[in-house]
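Quick one: structure tokens for this chain, please?
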Amino acid sequence: MNTLTLLAWEPPEFYTDLVNALVGSAATFVLLSTVGLMLGLKYYRVLTKPKVAGPIALLAGFLLFISYKNPQFSTIASLPDNVPIVMMVASVGFFVWLAFRQMALNDERLDQGLPPKEAEAKEVEKTFVWPDLVYIEFICLILFTVFLILWSIALKAPLEQPANPAKTPNPSKAPWYFLGLQEMLVYFDPWIAGVVLPTMIITGLMMLPYIDKNPKGNGYYTFKERKFAISVYMFGFVVAWVLLIFMGTFLRGPNWNFFGPYERWDIHKLEPLTNVNLSELVYLKAFGVGMPRNWFIREFWGILLLLIYFVVAPGALVRFVPMFRRFYDSMGMVRYSVFIVHLLVMAGMVIKMLSRWTMNLKYVVAIPEYFFNI
């Protein structure tokens, strides 16, 4: 196969069908991404080696290139406001590889009883803010200004027609940095998806230095000494945030239906879903009786489940899981409580999403009488 034939090659039908089947389902896509992240964390020393990561990157670039031969993929990925998302995904992949490659090198040195590479320099060279740092920043400013000017010339601004209440875009999407929140609005009430979860993301990041006082890993790259902290952060960043932005950008089509990367966005596609609350599953499906009129009796099982999840589970983890027992002993009750609540909320968000995709579960607790739904 010569170069011209290779460049003109389109993705074969069996490949597009396979990708659509695997990625065209939200539950499958998230589960595969989570499994891929877990395997990457487990075998990071092998996967980050240039002779392994290089071919993987070339294969990914080749698949991306030939994917642009597909009309549906090229239409979506080539939109001016979607091009930065493609670049974002590529840059996230590169910098994650770079960080874990440095972790792998340092962890190999630690296994040999050697200090981290960052500690090798006996004398740290001092650099003055003026003129050294200011010159570098000024050069970067000029380069990025030129880059943005060329960008604005090459790609048209994604401006649409003036707002018309009689004709709204389908799908109507938020800016890319809000697509994660828009995706969460599918599974949670606005007060949770738009207020509680973003607030907990911000407070969780603010509290990290006060909750995690482990000195290991300060000033040098390591995964061996910070496995749990880095794994949780990578899951929250990659799966619970970047993945939601990717899904909202490329996989959510008309009527907010889920489509595969090569699947035509059919505005007439209908997915009949019968979303049910947990109370309906308990009383109508399991017990075979009518729904109680009293809201507390009706939602008792959902409230009980939440109490077990947020009140009983933290203590059970301390008692039966040695790792969490060490966390409790090192953090104390207050810091451990803040830590475990944020961790359970992040895990609960993904569990709720999977429950909607697999069981059509709408709310665990639904109290419309007081506009309180979880």
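The radius of gyration is 25 Å.
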